[in-house]
Amino acid sequence: MYDFESFQSCDTDDQKLENESVNQAIVENPVTFHCGQCNTVWADSRGICGEATSSNSLICLEVTQDVTINSGREWSLDGLFSACVYNTLQCAGCLCLMGVILYSTPQHLTALRNLFLLKKDKMYCYIFSTGQTVKASTLNFNVTPLGERVSELRQLIQETESHLSNVSAVMDDTRTNEATSSVQSTS
Ligand SMILES: [Zn+2]
């Protein structure tokens, strides 16, 4: 049985980066994520698609080969991931359990299915631009919420459609004029 309780034990690091722009500058640049115990590389910023704040975990599309997916499926009857079926993830270096992949979940966790959830309080980040290492728990990897991006895209599509309808209106006018002029020339 996986220890879900430690998911909830949010690291109360008092050095949290209060400056949002500093945070943004870091998380938008190349970062690698390492085991806090043995330094094994678990993931890098290309594979990160956000963070699940309720479980204090990074959400990753991909991880390195040094993250072992344990074969036995497990399930949880209570707690944060109650009624979920999942596989645990293990660091290949020191064998610590550091996350899960959820397979079957209740409706409210559907968005997290088949993604890697890595515990933030078990890892640190190496920031390429500055050569610094910081605890992952000091950074906020929440990217722009999907909802906002979808509405931005919708707006773009609407604008494009209105441009297109303007263009086709102009073309229709041109065709009508051509037709009219051809009729006039034959008469
Ligand atoms: Zn390790």
Task: Describe it.
The protein has 187 residues and is α+β, with helices and mostly antiparallel strands. The protein has two domains: 5-143, Metal Binding Protein, Guanine Nucleotide Exchange Factor, Chain A, CATH 2.170.150; 144-187. Helices cover 28% and strands 28% of the residues. It contains three helices and eleven strands, in the order ααβββββββββββα. The chain has helices at 5-8, 20-27, 146-186; strands at 31-35, 41-44, 48-52, 57-60, 67-69, 74-76, 84-91, 97-104, 116-119, 123-127, 132-135. The strands form two sheets. Strands 3, 4, 5, 6, 7, 8 and 9 form a seven-stranded antiparallel β-sheet that branches. The longest helix has 41 residues, at 146-186. The termini are far apart. The relative contact order is 0.17. Mean pLDDT is 81; it is low at 4-14. The chain binds zinc ion. Residues 35, 37-38, 40, 91, 93-94, 96 line the site of zinc ion (ZN).
